[in-house]
Amino acid sequence: MTVTFRDFRPQNIAPVSLARLVAGFTPEIDASWEEIPVRGVSMASDEILAGEAFIAVGGANVHAAKFAGEVESLGAVAVITDAKGAQIATSQGVKIPVVTVPDPREAASPLAIRAFDNPAGKMKTVAVTGTNGKTTTCFAAKFTFEAAGLATMILSTAETQVGDLRIQSSRTTFEGPMLQRILAYGVEQGMQAAVVEVSAHALALARIAGMKFDATAFTNLQHDHLDYFHTMENYLAAKARLCSKEFTDYSVICVDDKWGQQLAANCDTQNLTVSAYDPAAQADWVVTRKVNNIAHAACDFTLTGKTEPNVGREEKITVALPGEVNVQDAAIAYLLVTGIGIPAEAVKAGLATLAVPGRLEIVSRRNEGTPLVINDYAHTPEALASILRTMQEFTPGKLHLVFGTDGDRDATKRVPLAKVAAQEADILWVTDENPRTENAQSIRAQLLSGIKEERPEMENVCEVTTCRRDAIRKAILAAHSDDTVMITGKGAEPYQEIEGVFHAFNDTPVARDCLAAYKNRAHIQG
Ligand SMILES: CC(=O)N[C@H]1[C@@H](OP(=O)(O)OP(=O)(O)OC[C@H]2O[C@@H](n3ccc(=O)[nH]c3=O)[C@H](O)[C@@H]2O)O[C@H](CO)[C@@H](O)[C@@H]1O[C@H](C)C(=O)N[C@@H](C)C(=O)N[C@H](CCC(=O)O)C(=O)O
Ligand SMILES: Nc1ncnc2c1ncn2[C@@H]1O[C@H](COP(=O)(O)OP(=O)(O)OP(=O)(O)O)[C@@H](O)[C@H]1O
């Protein structure tokens, strides 16, 4: 069954009168409209359901009021828009009420909270922001809630998941109406906790306006999205709001970079600071001991309290992911979730089983008699270098890398990506990612030319010309049990795009199938 976002819809939304929905957003509405029942709101004409109100914002491409006639024919009961939108809507002769508000984008999330009856208020909720580590920290929080027995939903870049229903997300943070609708669906499905990944764009564009979380966290700030925010200061200011009283009363701030330190110094919530990289840092908690658990591809670490009432308190924690960035994310998640009353033992149990789709996702651990096999979506030279260096520490044998790169996307990264691969991995399996409309062999040739700059003899380089599945199979079957096979580039993507066709394909199940062959072979030989 193909899951779409349309499936994440609550079935039993109690209607709100139009008057109550827009109260406070507009001075007065026509008396004959007041009692019109509204069952939900939507910002997109292709998502609207009969009975909903359409919130029409002016965007970079189009003013949504242009779709007023269309949504009316689909059963929308009102259009909520700005003055310009009202003109556009009425000029189409729509018969449904057109309600004017000063800023429909700002109003969208609060209106959705009202229309969907404040679903977040019925669950425990946490939200995470930061340039890197949001998804991992969100999953860490989810695993800890679940270990404490709470049915937990997640809205993250990697996946939107409510119970058995899961789908790869199209966005980091949805527009307010979609976000509230999915939360309302979660409540209907018996979810007791929700974890929400929040991008800086979402904060700047009011996608979570009006929400109040039980706890929020900030991971770090790195150079990104300056096309939108222009300066790092603006970028921090957008993210910092998540850790302010506007959205929460309790937050956890990682102070391993100067941006976190700046945020903590100005934070108006009750907050805990944490450093994973500097035991001498001025922070409420610091990571004092990190040990790679090579057999389990995990990290053991100690979180030590430095301020009252926790001075000298030590929490011994295992996070089931390799690499110190994951220690940072796990430490943040630990404080985030214990801070709102989840018992420490449950939190530790959750972190000890943490797995994130397509992010250092462990397909097979070395202690299962197979090589360590990992699926990760690193697709930039920097990310690939970082992840391969991490995995060197966890690899007593050879590090195999199965990789390719996207077609119809930034071709300038191909040679640098290939050079990193040649520098940091031992055995390279060059294959296809999403060739799209480009010639796959020409993309591989560009990668091979980058590799050749580092390895003129091309030793331990294998071009797999058939398909990605073959490359994964060949690498796994060639690996010894003390080797690591890294499959990078696609992460949790459920398809491979070739010539405009999206072929169902996900690296993790493909690798699992190949591992079954590996085990069979070992069994026959043994
Ligand atoms: C800067 C930004 O966030 N732009 C978003 C914004 O664009 P816009 O308002 O200018 O949209 P528009 O196309 O002019 O349409 C205006 C309105 O008409 C509606 N419409 C449009 C067409 C139609 O047929 N019917 C219809 O109803 C749209 O739903 C929209 O409400 O509203 C559009 C519809 O909701 C979004 O698709 C678009 O997100 C773009 C694609 C996007 O992804 N933006 C990125 C920058 C973003 O938000 N990324 C962050 C992650 C960042 C990170 O990596 O950390 C994220 O949270 O995903
Ligand atoms: N705390 C961290 N600091 C720096 N890098 C990190 C951290 N946690 C994870 N990473 C790395 O950053 C990349 C993205 O991780 P993750 O998906 O958790 O973050 P994100 O903020 O959700 O990013 P995205 O929105 O791009 O998915 C991965 O390559 C991961 O190894």
What report would you give on this structure?
- It is a single chain.
- The protein is α/β, with parallel strands linked by helices and 526 residues long.
- Helices cover 33% and strands 21% of the residues.
- The protein has an 11-stranded mixed beta sheet with strand order 10-9-8-11-7-12-13-14-15-16-17, sandwiched between helices.
- Strand 16 and strand 17 form a beta hairpin.
- Helix 5 crosses helix 12, helix 14 (414-424) crosses helix 15 (440-454) and helix 16 (468-478) packs parallel to helix 17.
- The longest helix has 19 residues, at 507-525.
- The radius of gyration is 25 Å and the shape is globular.
- It starts with 15 loop residues before the first strand and ends with a helix.
- Ligand UAG binds at residues 43-46, 57, 59-62, 64, 67, 171-173, 175, 199, 201-202, 205.
- Its cofactor is Mg(2+).
- Belongs to the MurCDEF family. MurE subfamily.
- ATP binds at residues 130-136.
- Keywords: ATP-binding, Cell cycle, Cell division, Cell shape, Cell wall biogenesis/degradation, Cytoplasm, Ligase, Magnesium, Nucleotide-binding, Peptidoglycan synthesis.
